[in-house]
User: Which sequence fits this backbone?
DNA sequence: CAACAATATTTGTACATACAAATGTAATGC
DNA sequence: GCATTACATTTGTATGTACAAATATTGTTG
């Protein structure tokens, strides 16, 4: 469905305004379709943190490092991690070299949860992108990267 | 910047996974750069509602109608509208034909606020899309529409 | 016309998020 | 070695959001 139909606008939109709204709208669509997170009592952000910690392959990560790599840089990574610790998916310990820092590890429970989610996510992403060819996916990635290539902000 | 660099992943990503993350990330980027909303004590959703009501050109809209046209369909359109009413940007009255319904109008104050925002948004969207040609914008819109063309969800 | 279902909106509750300020720790200059 | 600044994380507070349940009104059926 075109974005105009999706949000039921009658007046035709300028391509650049349309593109901005289209990115926002498609992002919400992706979030809404990603039901597997809720089903596992995770938010997308919590999942994202787990993925980052798994990517560390045993090396500890501190809060800042995690934050820098997050897709959605919530200002409150602390409380996000709190939830994961409470669920025993993440372990938290004070760094001995620099006690200001916190060392974060994914637990084996966390690893298991991710393992069980892996095929589901993989399948979901395939489904989401099923109508796009390899070439189109490449183009889409290129154009989105280009859109963010702004340097005036952030 | 490529999405890999942006979120500092070391392992190369599959294009389809990359595309999904890229849409989410770019959307957050757009939200973060849209500082003019906060400066006018509006959230993006509140702005969106005002735009929808202006689009009605005097015709009243009810809550459901607004919700259907929103980019981000929050389940709580009621409270969102509460805020706008409190700020005198929107007027709310019970529909006489069907008293379950609520008729929503943008006030002249709301119209004025939108008018003052129009050039700012226009400028911002130009800036955001400055590196994309007309052809590229068209392609981007097409590919995003295609991505949502899924029918299995929503 | 009473009972029930359908529709439109609101409210309750729990949780998430944003931003600023506070805390605790380390590094630097004098 | 003490004060000052910078750094890493946490907490406070206000606000926003999600989902379910509640309320109010209308339409339908026996």
Assistant:
């Amino acid at each position: 469905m075109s974005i105009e139909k999706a949000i039921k606008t009658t007046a035709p939109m300028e391509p650049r305004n349309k593109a901005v709204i289209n990115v926002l709208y498609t992002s919400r669509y992706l979030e809404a379709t990603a039901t597997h997170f809720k089903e596992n009592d995770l938010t997308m952000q919590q999942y994202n943190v787990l993925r980052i910690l798994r990517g560390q392959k045993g090396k500890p990560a501190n809060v800042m490092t995690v934050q820098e790599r997050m897709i959605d840089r919530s200002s409150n990574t602390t409380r996000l991690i709190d939830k994961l610790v409470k669920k025993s998916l993440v372990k938290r310990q004070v760094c001995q070299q620099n006690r200001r820092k916190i060392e974060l590890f994914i637990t084996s429970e966390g690893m298991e949860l991710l393992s069980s989610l892996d095929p589901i996510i993989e399948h979901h992403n395939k489904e989401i992108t099923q109508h796009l060819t390899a070439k189109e996916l490449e183009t889409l990635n290129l154009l989105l990267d280009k859109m963010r290539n702004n340097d005036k902000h952030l």
Q: What stands out?
A: Strands of chain B lie at 90-94, 102-106. Residues 38, 62-64, 76-79, 98, 100-102 of chain B lie near DNA strand C (CB under 10 Å from a C1'). The mean pLDDT of chain B is 92. Chain B has eight helices and two strands.
